[in-house]
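Anyone opening a protein record will find just a pair of labelled lines. A complete record is shown below as an example.
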Amino acid sequence: MKYKLNKKLIITAFVFSMILSTNTKVFAQYGGGAGGYDSESLEITKEVKLEGDENFRDKVYVDFKNASEKDKNIIFRITVKNNGDSIDKLKYEDFLPNSLDKVSGDLTEEVGSLNNNESRSYEIVASIDEDDKNRDYVFEKCVVNKVELRQDDDYKDNDVATVCYGNVDEPTQLPETGFIPLTGLSGLGLVTLSSYLKKKIKK
C-alpha cells in the first residue's frame, strides 16, 4: 500500500503562509475529511475546468473582476479506473464545499462493476455561492472539492480539485500539486507541513 500525497494539507500550509504575509482577506474551505490508504488497483481522479474552457486540470481560478467569468459554471470531472481484476459494488461520494452550489450531476453515484483497465467518467456542474459573488471588499478564496471511492463500503481512494476565486489585482498562484518549496512558507504554514511529514515518517 502507498499513501497518496495529501494535497489538502499542502494547500493548507500555503494558505496559512499567505494569511501571515498579506492584508488581503484570504479564505480556505474543504469539502470532506482526510482519506486513508490508497488501493493499488483502483484509482479515482478529480479534475476541474471553467465553463467554456477546453481542458480539465487540477485547479482553476475565477476572476471576479471579469463580469462574464464571474457567472460561469464550474465543471468537475470524476474518473474511476480499475487497474486490476474485475471488481463490483463500486461507489463514489463527492463532498462539495458549502461555497459551491450544485447545478447538475450526482454527488453520490453507484459506479457498479469495472473490468480490468476499464474506466468510467462522471461530471458535476456547480456555481459559486451568491454570498461570495456579492462580497464588497477585496478577497481571495480557495475551496477544495474532495471525492472518495469505496467498494462495498470499504475505502479505496480519493482525490481533490481546487477552485480559487476573488477580486484581487494579482491572484495568488497555488503551488503545483505534489511539491511545494519550503522557502515559500512562513511561520504556521511551515509548522503545519512539518508536523504532517513527521507523522507520515513515524507510520
